[in-house]
Amino acid sequence: MAPKYEINSRQTLEMLNKLSSDPVDGLCVLMRHSERNYHENAAMEPFMGLTENGKNAAVDLGAALPASIEPAIFSSHFGRCIETAYLIDKGFTRQGGRFGSLPVISSDLSPFYIRHIKKAIRMVEDMTPDRFLRAWFNREIPETVMEDPRQAALRITSFLKDHLDHRENSRQSFSICITHDWNIFPVREYIMDLSHEKNGPIGYLDAIFLFRKEGRYFMASRQKEPVEVTRLLREKND
């Protein structure tokens, strides 16, 4: 049976508007792709695209973005993330908005942390996804199978920071990064101190936010008020 997730675009837009109303120097959205199809064969996982409902939700989210921004958009190389980025773009431009660039594919938004895909799939099937996640976060999964989760979280967060800094002189430094729930989980766990067990699954088009204010970096989500991450990001770069 395919897992059921909520489409959380409304909550994401509410958070985005709340943060945009504050005088921040830049904002980067790390967002899960829209609603997707599933297959009983786990080997088909990379090839599952969006449902029709998911396609419409991505267009609607793009159409609801404030037209005053000129965002950059990035995506994982998986088709469902590319679809989501493309459809957000179409919804935004339909309302007269304009992206600062065409969608860019990035390995940092893809499942780079999986080092042995066949072993990882077998372990998930044997343990259930939730138990596997906790074992990964507890460093009980060999690093030959999964990269250290804290390092994965720092790599993803540093990717967001780098794009905030790169667009520092843009009309408005704003980026949307379309990724997978498993890319968001370690960031939520290690950077925001939000455990998977207490905060549950990450819905479609759900997001966490990195923003810069007065030279300092903060991360926020609908579950938690902004937490400063400047020191953690400096640690990654040292």
Radius of gyration: 17 Å
Chain oligomer state = single chain
CATH architecture of the largest domain: 3-Layer(aba) Sandwich
How many runs of DSSP E, i.e. beta strands? 7
Report the mean per-residue pLDDT as an integer.
90
Helix/sheet category: alpha/beta
Low-confidence stretches: none
Strand order of the largest sheet: 3-2-4-1-5-6-7
The CATH superfamily of the largest domain is known as Phosphoglycerate mutase-like
- Name of the top-level CATH class of the largest domain: Alpha Beta
What general form does the structure show? globular
**N-to-C SSE series?**
HEHEHEHHHEHHEEEH
Could you tell me how far the N terminus lies from the C terminus, measured between alpha carbons in angstroms? 45 Å
Strand content: 15-25%
Structure, briefly:
The chain is of the alpha/beta class.
Structure description:
Helices cover 43% and strands 16% of the residues. By secondary structure, it is α/β, with parallel strands linked by helices. It folds into 2 domains: 9-111 and 148-237, Rossmann fold; 113-146, no CATH class. Strands 3-2-4-1-5-6-7 form a 7-stranded mixed β-sheet, with helices on both faces. A hairpin with a 2-residue loop joins strand 5 (207-213) and strand 6. The radius of gyration is 17 Å and the shape is globular. The model has no long low-confidence stretch (mean pLDDT 90).
